[in-house]
C-alpha cells in the first residue's frame, strides 16, 4: 500500500529555530520543528517527563530543551538525552517542493468501530 502524506503547507510558515503545533482530534498534538540548519522534524508535543509542551522549548542543533524542567530531547529519535530517560514518539515527515508533509497514518488515529476517523486540524 502506498503511503499517504498529509500536506501541512509551505516550509516558510515555520521560522528557523521555531516550532508549530498541529492539533489532532482524538489524538496527541504534534509539534513540527524547524532547526537552524534547515531541517524539519515532528514529535508528539508532550515531554516524557511531565507532558511539557515541547513546541515551546528551545531548539538547538537537532534537539529541543523542554520549557518546564530543561530535559533535552533528540528531534531525530525522540530519545531523552543526558542522564534522564524517556522517549517521545516521532512522526515521519518529508519536505517536497518546499512543502511539509507528515505520514497520514501516523497522525490520523485509526477509525473506531462506531465513529469517524480522527482528523488533524490546521494549526
Ligand atoms: S515536563 Fe519536560 S522536563 Fe519536565
UniProtKB/TrEMBL annotation:
Pfam families: Rieske. Gene3D superfamilies: Rieske [2Fe-2S] iron-sulphur domain (2.102.10.10). CDD domains: Rieske_NirD_small_Bacillus. Residues 5-102 form the Rieske domain. PROSITE patterns: RIESKE. Keywords: 2Fe-2S, Iron, Iron-sulfur, Metal-binding, Nitrate assimilation, Oxidoreductase. InterPro entries: Rieske-like_NirD (IPR012748), Rieske_2Fe-2S (IPR017941), Rieske_2Fe-2S_sf (IPR036922). This is Nitrite reductase small subunit NirD. It comes from Pelagerythrobacter marensis.
